[in-house]
């Protein structure tokens, strides 16, 4: 990874990447070996972890700059267990180093670490030690400041000996001067200039950040060599890969951030995660709804869920959560084996039941001897962008091939209608259906066509590698058709080799896909001054087609929303469409909204896309909009009282010549006409600044965390202004819990505190919103861990009402949501915008 710093005008603030030990310093792990890796912790702090029984602890070096404490313990027989070695870090520590030893004959010892603010790294059994600091970190571990407080080494003993496993952990704390921090780059969401077409990509790749032997630069080189257009870096149970890109993001290859969530009951790929996001793993099939909750969270982030090598017959790898509970199955994992044949057989049964779960093929490459992109997916996408590629994969608009030499053209026709993989061909009962498969680059193979009735046609492809397979069906006599190409030569565990496989063309089905991004619809509801809620209603999308957010009489399909209550009683709404276009409308009461307007980018650029956006309404009838562009740059503009827009421009950063980089943003209007902005910088920490009435911006200031932590980090935030000139902040921490604090009129902060949950001491949530009302109270909404909308009120005296559920469109049933925002009007009513979970 290059170590050069970005130019001085790069977005800031900046977290620190770094590699620590040289790549490949851990033991070699082959691709098809049992990975036997644990996973990162998704909630709670080190103080909440149950410590391991320590047989002995000794400290040496006290009073010096390097203090080492040795912990010894023993874990019992078993695989599904976790142990935690807690230790305290005093102020002034700049680096933590951990080394472990264990009785290797007794089993495997997985390793990770958790800090006061949450997850800081995981390497499973690939490493026996690590180091981390603000300036660098061993691959698999997240660089950043060493916070004082309670830390914990995470151990995952997989013990095969009935006598147990003895282990030792050495924790070394290094004092010294503060170390510099270095930025990471935001991965571009698209490759410019690439329109509709077929694109090749591998979604399952491992680097030195877990048990892989390649650096990300070496993965990129190998992907280019194979002729791929996109890749996903999916290291086991760590977010570190995503936050260590620095000066080496390729401009010709789409890189998608991902994670292989490695539970002890099956592995799955969370593809399309924002950089720095990680996914909980601490559940099994007995934890009812736990996997579905995590999949719903990935979907709310715009991601894709794929069961990885689901029928690999190995402890911890075999999929136990249900094959129909994911967006796709990895039916082909690396070199063709009997496991893959079982995957395809199980997938075919699902298709026969009408379950539209897509199939993918990936290399799962770990070592340099594993070929990146063999196999890989060929996807028909509207552009070479993350959202378009993931949408196409979700719909099954793809096929998998053994190498870039192989190309398929698979279509079904009736009359003038044509459909390809993942599409449905509209048919009557007596329509003739002509299915054609054209193959190139597959010499000496056999092409086969399947429906739910089995093999319907087959043909040999000669040494030239080109051939055609044709079949005619009738009406709805078949539910689907799909194709395979195989080579009749033995592989390691089979008598043949798979060369290519398509997703089906559908003729009809009683079931819809388990998840569809176009079903994420923007809803609106009002809470009246008497506390009652109006019925949830979907908002219509823009007129015309090609907007990426629904068309004509359809509803607005979106991934995020924001709302601002105007002095005249109307509500201005922002909506981010599935193509990341930013749209604006206004709603008054139950009347139809004004026509949607797509907002242009800086310098009036058309087709502008954003990651996040928020809006605030001011007493003079103006609005201010803040957004993060796809490259992380934070931009701002004003909507005048007459509805005109001033145009986006970049916000200043920490220096006069730099811009501000952020992953999440929120804006609040204050009674004096100033604006308060809140953001998570690219270092993951929360920052605050003020835009005065004169248009002058204050410097960005980093917010303190909960319980004295130096910073607050998490996946969501919101800020609102109060009638008395104070402000209130709502945020979700790295532990998944909701936190609140106030900014007093003198500029001081009260400090974060967690409000009580529905039936527990704290409230877990995946999305939040807050709005100050004229009476001095604050209306709070949250998408709970159950995926439903909840509401409560923080009263002017600082007390809280209990959380209550917000009803759905019929006024009764709960409303499942993925994202939510709320605003208040002068009459005491509040308006809520929510994106349905789909």
Mean pLDDT: 87
Query: Which structural class do you get from the secondary structure elements?
Result: mainly beta
What's the architecture of the largest domain, going by CATH? Answer: 6 Propeller
The strand count comes to 50
* Secondary structure tally, helices: 4
Shape: globular
Helix content: under 10%
CATH class descriptor of the largest domain: Mainly Beta
Biggest sheet features: 14 strands, mixed
Strand residue percentage: 35-45%
Uncertain regions: pLDDT < 50 for 5+ in a row?
Answer: 1-49, 511-518, 545-553
Give a topology summary.
Layout: E1 54-60, E2 66-75, E3 83-89, E4 93-102, E5 107-115, E6 118-124, E7 129-133, E8 149-159, E9 165-175, E10 197-205, H1 216-226, E11 230-236, E12 254-263, E13 266-271, H2 290-300, E14 304-308, E15 328-333, H3 338-352, E16 358-362, E17 376-381, H4 386-395, E18 398-401, E19 407-414, E20 417-419, E21 432-440, E22 445-451, E23 454-461, E24 467-474, E25 480-487, E26 497-502, E27 505-506, E28 522-527, E29 537-538, E30 560-565, E31 571-576, E32 582-587, E33 597-598, E34 610-617, E35 623-629, E36 634-639, E37 649-650, E38 662-669, E39 675-681, E40 686-691, E41 701-702, E42 716-721, E43 727-732, E44 738-743, E45 765-772, E46 778-784, E47 789-794, E48 804-805, E49 817-824, E50 830-836
Region (Disordered): 1-28, 530-554
Biased composition (Gly residues): 543-554
Protein name: Polymerase/histidinol phosphatase N-terminal domain-containing protein
